Amino acid sequence: xxxIVVRHAQSEWNERGLLQGQRESGVSxxxxxxxxxxLDALEGYRIDAVLSSPATRALSTAHAVAQHxxxxxxxxxxxxxxxxxxxQGMMIQDVLRLHPQSGGALLAGDIDAVPAHGESARQxxxxxxxxxxxxxxxxxxxTACAVTHGNTLAALLWRLHGAKLADPFSRYSPANGxxxxxxxxxxxxxxxxxxxxxxxxxxxxx
Length: 206
Known about the structure:
Blueprint: E1 2-7, H1 12-16, H2 29-41, E2 49-52, H3 56-69, E3 73-75, H4 92-98, H5 102-107, H6 121-138, E4 143-148, H7 150-160, E5 179-185, E6 188-196, H8 198-203
Protein name: Phosphoglycerate mutase
Binding site for substrate: 7-14, 57
Active site: 8, 81
């Protein structure tokens, strides 16, 4: 089985530099353009099913892909963004100013940094990892598009690339509207390629 794993299109909070976590935010004008560019980029792929985080910004992308490919859509909370606890809704600079230690660790890409009342990126990546394995069993031989979020996807890619603990997971954070290809073989996930964004560059919405 193959997964086309997409980071949702840019949201209004992405544009403003606010940390979203599991809070809601609408899609920006750039995000709408990214959705259109993504549909063009995925034109040559067979997509049998679409999986999505329940967040509005993810569903915007997921609905567009599902409609374009006439594929069923499933919503799964395991694809949601990392829960950023008390940092949700804060500007990045305010997180660093008010929480220099815990906020600094998170923004520096510490895979195990846990915001108060939140979860680590590692925990979010594990959610996504096990969700994909479950779908690989439920949808054998199919190609599914999974729409998720920046930190959650970066943590999964960090794990699949065999990164060391000292390596920041944020190094693997893909652009909004980009996609990565992940294959499942013998119950193991492997990355075929990641961070495809040439469609965004060509459309002027990277």
